[in-house]
Specification:
decarboxylase; PEP_carboxykinase_GTP_C; binds manganese (II) ion; EC 4.1.1.32; PEP_carboxykinase_C; binds guanosine-5'-triphosphate; 17 helices; nine-stranded mixed β-sheet; Phosphoenolpyruvate carboxykinase [GTP]
Amino acid sequence: MRNETLHAWVKKVAEHTKPDAVRWCDGSAMEARSIEDRMIADGELLRLNARVPHSFLHRTTPADGEDGDRLSVVCTKYEDDAGPTNDWMSPEDAERTVWPRFEGIMRGRTMYVVPYLLGPAHSSHNRFGVQITDSAYVAASLRIMTRVGQVALRQLGASPRFVKGLHSVGDRSPHRRFICHFPETKTIWSLGSEYAAHAILSKECHALRLASAEACEEGWMAEHMTIFGLTSPSGITRYMAAALPNGCGKTNLGMLTPTLPGWKVETVGDDIGWMHVGEDGRLWALNPLAGFFGVAPGTNQKTNRNVLAAIARDVLFTNTAVRADGSPWWEGLEPLADGEMLTDWRGRAWTQDSGQPAAHPNARFTVSARQCPTVGESFDAPNGVPISAILFGGRRTKVAPLVFETHDWAHGVYTGASLVSETKVAADGSGGILSNDPMAMLPFCGINLGEYLRHWLRIGGRLSRPPRIFHVNWFRTDADGKLLWPGFGDNIRVLEWILERTEGRGGAIQTPLGWMPTRSELNLEGLDIHPDRFDELMSVDARAWLDEAYRNEPFFHQFGPRWPERLEREHQALIERLRAA
Ligand code: GTP
Ligand code: MN
Ligand code: MN
């Protein structure tokens, strides 16, 4: 069946961008080989050694990827629909100023047309997109991150309902970079970057920014969340979803290796969750993606052995270093030999005396989720999994305790809306710069964030068995800047308490923030943590929280009448509880 909308669009783009060749991707293994061979010949990919079979390294230009969120604009008819936290451009202005920049941009290059499916095949919740790109690296990444080719085309049929993504690396100049999102016409234009979030348009651009707009209209949710299942030693399985800002532990949490005996984790997703209200009144979540695009630095046997197993073969690495034997390396992987010489992410000779990291701090691996030992059957479940708990959390060296439970859905939404994370550590070590990042969606919400929060409240009204909502923080430090909590696999101790709470068990004490476990309620067996340090980890300083609540006010009130009155009531109630404390 020929899709006329699709063919007309591809023709229009090809006439405008003038590639030397147009190549439709079918998703076959043969096609993958030929794209790889071509990239190796062009020097775009480096084949890694046989210790990681069929794996490659790609290096982006050094300045790429650092400022993308600032270059991202939402193009809606009315500026208010993009809201105060997004940069806005009118569709007419985009048409007039950005579209001409694509003229002739693919001359001398091949244009890849990649149809993709978001969500499991045969799910009524899945969505389609077609990305045009002149980067073979991006086409290869899309093949891993989504279900591409025939599987998508067959299900799309003749429907005009798909996202049109146009991407060109252009001249890679940081001064001519744009990412335009058009929620009203389901279109994305990205120019000048090869960095994944800006180039693999199916991910942040489609599965979050455009999907959040569509979801709000249609009554579902597109969230920046990892989704995972937890099976207790007694055999109870419950699913959870966690929204943590970029670089705050989603991938690690979704695949954790429990340090408590008898516990099992199942990974459903590591970055994005699409959620629906089920007929049973529960919230169901699925992973629209098919692959992981994870942070390499810090990944090792101890922190995440599941991901290490997943990336043992068939991986596309980006901006890692390479050892002399041709295997990839990054900070935190394993110690190097004395004086060992590496090639750093820029392709230069590097030793431990070089004074700079060998891998880019945001070096990544792109790998099929299927290769992860903790990925199971639920990964392809058409309706996803029922969510018992939602976790919000940021990187907080101060103030935020290890865990607390909110009172109900509205209080949970308020807590998510108040999410704050440290982005950078100040030079004097006095802690990080705090930024508001509601539901970890600030950079990814394609609509007015005030409207997005209203949507959360509306969804809650439709849930007869809503998940409980928690706040977590793995990053609190003592006065010397030392972490108070071991994190990673030991986070199972917090998850166990959360699971108990969702089952109506698990003791807790009331604090101004919500419900918190006492030391005896958390399973700390085998953990070497001094009672004083535990108390420090769990302490709630009412004064500091009050300051924080006041500091949040300008952020909340910038949404004007879109800031939900229900959340304002939660805000005032929190202030009262803190004052009384
Ligand atoms: P994005 O993919 O950018 O959205 O990041 P992410 O949320 O998936 O974060 P990821 O799991 O890749 O972790 C980011 C950083 O936080 C890494 O350096 C991890 O080592 C570190 N990290 C993750 N979990 C923990 C934890 O429980 N404790 C501590 N101390 N660090 C953690
Ligand atoms: Mn991640
Ligand atoms: Mn992310």
